[in-house]
Design brief:
The protein folds into two domains: 2-56, CRO Repressor, CATH 3.30.240; 82-111. Helix content is 39%, strand content 17%. It has four helices and six strands, in the order E-E-H-H-E-E-H-E-E-H. The protein has helices at 9-15, 19-27, 61-71, 95-110; strands spanning 2-3, 6-7, 37-42, 48-52, 86-87, 90-91. The strands form two sheets. Strands 2-1-3-4 form a four-stranded antiparallel sheet, with no helix packed on it. Strand 5 (86-87) and strand 6 (90-91) form a beta hairpin. The longest helix is centred in the C-terminal third of the chain and has 16 residues, at 95-110.
């Protein structure tokens, strides 16, 4: 149906498939333009089989990692959440608030 990004209308006629229906079925497979397709054909089960042109293919995680390795770029780890402050009786997530209130009370007494 498609060769090197060009429609083969003679094959479409043989398959009784309109250009509009072909475009619809390609969009369902996340292909936006016929020109992006290297080849497309109808599989025995009726589905469209296709291959995108090399410059339109999606990058894989492996591709991205290879690029990062070539650039010697390291992605920083995401910052950790602030961990709870350990008090005398174990974990006390309100220790900072308690300390701030005590400091405020001490300042009020000094006035």
């Amino acid at each position: 149906m498609i060769e090197n990004g060009k429609l083969r209308t003679d094959n479409l006629k043989k398959l009784r498939l309109t250009v509009d229906k072909l475009e619809m079925r390609l969009r369902q497979k996340s292909v936006q333009r016929i020109e992006d397709v290297q080849w497309a054909s109808i599989e025995p089960n009726g589905e469209i089989g296709y291959a995108l042109k090399e410059h339109k293919q999606f990058a894989t995680k492996e591709d991205i990692q290879m690029i990062l390795d070539l650039l010697h770029v390291k992605i920083p780890e995401p910052p950790l959440r602030k961990q709870a402050i350990k008090g005398e009786k174990g974990t006390n997530i309100f220790k900072e608030l308690k300390d701030n209130n005590e400091n405020r009370n001490n300042r009020d007494e000094l006035k």
